[in-house]
Automatic annotation (TrEMBL):
It comes from the Eukaryota. This is Pentatricopeptide repeat-containing protein At5g65570. It holds the Pfam family Eplus_motif. Keywords: Repeat. PPR repeats lie at residues 139-173, 241-275, 342-376, 443-477. GO terms for biological process: RNA modification. Residues 657-748 form the DYW domain. It comes from Raphanus sativus. InterPro entries: DYW_dom, E2_motif, E_motif, PPR_At4g14850-like_plant, PPR_rpt, TPR-like_helical_dom_sf. Residues 1-30 are annotated as: Disordered. GO terms for molecular function: RNA binding; zinc ion binding. Belongs to the PPR family. PCMP-H subfamily.
Length: 748
DNA sequence: GTAGGGTTAG
């Protein structure tokens, strides 16, 4: 095309600067123009023949036309040119035409609609808006196009502004306007204004007659959380289609009304509307939530039959469904069949595996994803982090923290909460706090996570301070907040404060569950206020096993055999042969020296084929997790070194005043055997291993049961012997052992 | 000429 211009010689001085665009015309030539349009064609073909060009692309023709700009005399001349420029998304050409129009004295209104359309299609919103504002009168399509552009680009505020301008300009919205503007209302939470516009849709009869308007309304009410309203709208729409019904299925599914989602899906089949991949994607999630694997499989079948099983979105939902139904193997089968999993698919896999307690596998898959160069998002990272925090994999978690930083997601609330959770569950409240302090947005969830981290680590005052901040920010506490606050009081021995909070929570908006009561029962029980704790349970409408068992374990702590036996009868009525209860009773009898009763309990348990789950501890060394079981002295390849180190540690501890606490042995045996059994507790083995391997920094132990009194006092002294912090996460809370004392202040 | 629905999370 440059050649042609050169041929034109001095004519290039007539060419506006914009024409120096080097973009290629994608299609079209003079012939096509001749066929399509009538106005400019004479001029174009005239010039073509003048230069003897055989076709050539549109842009070169256009340049020639501009050279002969005196031919721009009527709107007919440039109208087809403009259309061509729009088709080609060629913005410089559009601006040239506008300039020519102005030069020829045409008012902009004449082609305003087209120019706005052109600006929007070329993504030149500033230009489009300027032309729009200069127009005295606008066609409804122009209004709609501008609104639609803003919606499409998630600029809801501007969309609503234009819509309001439309109303104040006395232009009546039509089905196109309404079907897009509702999305902006839900996005901005403008419920009142949305209702007014809904009213307008009703008056115009569009709610019933136009399925686009109906779907937009359904979607909007769903996003406002008003599924009931959404359903009412749907019922009124005359001709229901797949999008309309899917919008409702999605709505129910996202609001956790899973049974309703499945019901809406069924109604779709009954009405003979064919579901598509969007529908399947949502209804499968609800099946997963309901753990309704039979209906899930039925839908899987339907998908295969209708060929929608190959779309990535629906495959991801299938994967999620199988994982939520705990069918790990089936889900792995699905995953294997997916050719190009995207980050959502991978995230679904990682989070689902964590959900099923398959953390190791989850992290392996996460690493595979990284090897495949699929970029993780904040969802992926928070799932992987949860895997680490479940197993207290500190080093692994720190590696993922590195990835979080690499992708600049450290200020993101999802990834951030994952990190807070990780550090909290690894006993590093200060690291959790520094992550929390860098978050760009503090919300209820990140606050809850931080409060919970403090709570489980026994930093009650810090937790309560944050709770106060939450209140000052005007954020609404939820059930997790309440639990975290109560736990904070519980783990820090702040019993009076805990009771006060509980009273105020009772009057608050959050519906208290058995978990909240269990926390209070534990708090009162451990403080020895057993009667108060029992009274509290009696206030609960449906007291469950956990509540009674919590009180029973308080009886064990305070060796209240009489109350314990009464509770035991009560519990065994609700749950005959409850394992936890029998173990607690057996331990209580043991600690009070009632060995005959212990033997009775043990034979009861044997009769019911119940076995105590073994005490286990884990410790991570060089990113490898080592498992230790109480009494198992030989499985570990380094048993010899471990026992040697352990012996040394026990000796040094004894020098500093450690003595075995034999009340922790729940078996009737010789005194020396009791001592031996204490020495073989899993946390002692794990610590000895970590000491032998000379772990740098703090030693972190994870334990499946509660730390016993003997181990607790031993670890305290060992922390002084080795001059190292030992952090132990047991089944209930954290213990930070440092220089001879523990963060729990011996209250746990 | 302009319009409506999804899958991963603490």
């Amino acid at each position: 095309m440059g050649l042609l211009l050169k041929k034109g010689g001095n004519a290039s001085s007539n060419t506006p600067a914009e024409l120096n665009d080097s973009g290629d015309g994608r299609r079209n030539n003079a012939t096509a123009m001749r066929r399509d349009y009538s106005g400019g064609l004479i001029v174009v073909s005239g010039i073509s023949s003048l230069f003897g060009s055989k076709g050539g692309n549109f842009r070169s023709q256009f340049r020639l036309l501009c050279i002969a700009s005196n031919s721009f005399t009527t709107t007919h001349t440039f109208s087809p040119l403009l259309r061509q420029c729009i088709d080609e998304r060629w913005f410089p050409g559009i601006k040239t035409i506008q300039a020519q129009m102005l030069k020829s004295g045409f008012p902009i209104q004449l082609s305003g609609s087209k120019l706005v359309d052109a600006g929007l299609k070329c993504g030149e919103i500033g230009y489009a808006r300027k032309v729009f504002d200069e127009m005295r009168e606008r066609h409804i399509v122009t209004w709609n196009s501008l609104i639609a552009y803003f919606i499409k680009h998630r600029r809801s505020k501007e969309a609503v502004e234009v819509y309001r301008l439309m109303i104040t300009s006395n232009v009546s919205p039509d089905e196109y306007t309404l079907s897009s503007v509702f999305k902006a209302f839900s996005d901005l939470g403008l419920e009142k204004e949305a209702q007014r516009s809904h009213g307008l849709a009703v008056v115009l009869g569009l709610e019933v007659s136009n399925v686009f308007v109906g779907s937009a309304l359904v979607d909007m009410y769903v996003k406002f959380g008003k599924t009931r309203e959404a359903k009412l709208v749907l019922d009124r729409v005359e001709e229901k289609d797949v999008v309309l019904i899917t919008a409702l299925v999605v709505g129910y599914s996202q609001k956790g009304e899973d049974a309703e989602a499945v019901k809406a899906f069924r109604s779709m089949l009954v009405e003979g509307v064919q579901p598509n991949e969007y529908t399947y994607a949502s209804v499968l999630i609800s099946c997963g939530n309901l753990k309704d694997i039979s209906y899930g499989k039925l839908i899987h079948g339907l998908m295969i039959k209708s060929g929608f099983d190959s779309a990535l979105g629906s495959q991801t939902s299938l994967l999620t469904m199988y994982l939520r139904c705990c069918l790990v193997d089936d889900s792995l089968c699905i995953f294997k069949c997916i050719e190009y999993p995207n980050e959502v698919t991978w995230t679904s896999l990682v989070s689902g595996l964590v959900l099923n307690g398959r953390e190791e596998m989850a992290l392996t898959e996460f690493r595979k994803m990284m090897c495949d160069s699929v970029k993780p998002n904040s969802f992926t990272l928070s799932s992987a982090l949860r895997g680490c925090s479940n197993l207290a994999m500190f080093e692994e978690g720190r590696q993922i923290h590195g990835i979080v930083l690499k992708y600049g997601l450290d200020r993101d609330k999802y990834a951030g909460s994952g990190l807070i959770d990780l550090y909290g569950k690894c006993g590093c409240s200060d690291m959790a706090r520094s992550v929390f302090d860098t978050l760009s947005e503090v919300d209820v969830i990140s606050l809850n996570t931080m409060i919970y981290s403090y709570a489980q680590n026994g930093f009650g005052h810090e937790a309560l301070e944050l709770f106060e901040r939450m209140m000052n920010l005007g954020l609404q506490a939820n059930d997790v907040t309440v639990l975290s606050v109560l736990l904070a009081c519980n783990n820090s021995g702040l019993v009076d404060e805990g009771c006060e909070f509980f009273e105020s929570f009772r009057k608050g908006k959050v519906v208290l569950t058995n978990d909240h009561y269990a926390c209070m029962v534990d708090m009162l029980g451990r403080a020895g206020r057993l009667d108060e704790a029992e009274m509290l349970i009696n206030e609960v409408v449906n007291p469950d096993l956990v509540l009674w068992r919590t009180l029973l374990s308080a009886c064990k702590i305070h060796r209240n055999v009489e109350m314990a036996e009464r509770l035991k009868r009560k519990i065994l009525e609700i749950a005959p042969g409850d394992e936890g209860t029998l173990i607690l009773m057996s331990n209580l009898y043991a600690s009070t020296g009632k060995w005959n009763r212990v033997i009775e309990m043990k034979s009861d348990m044997r009769g019911m084929k119940l076995k105590k789950s073994p005490a286990m501890s884990w410790v991570e060394v060089d990113r490898e997790t080592h498992t230790f079981m109480a009494g198992d002295l030989f499985s570990h390849p380094n048993s010899e070194q471990i026992l040697e180190t352990l012996e040394e540690l026990i000796k040094k501890a004894k020098d500093l005043g450690y003595a075995e606490d034999k009340s922790c042995v729940f078996q009737d045996m010789e005194e020396s055997a009791k001592e031996r059994s204490l020495h073989q507790h899993s946390e002692k083995l794990a610590i000895a291993f970590a000491v032998w391997r000379n772990v740098g920094g703090s030693i972190r132990i994870l334990k499946n049961l509660r730390v016993c009194v003997d181990c607790h006092s031993w670890i305290k002294i060992v922390s002084r012997v080795i001059k190292r912090e030992i952090i132990c996460r047991d089944s209930k809370r954290f213990h930070h052992f440092r220089d001879g004392s523990c963060s729990c202040r011996d209250y746990w």
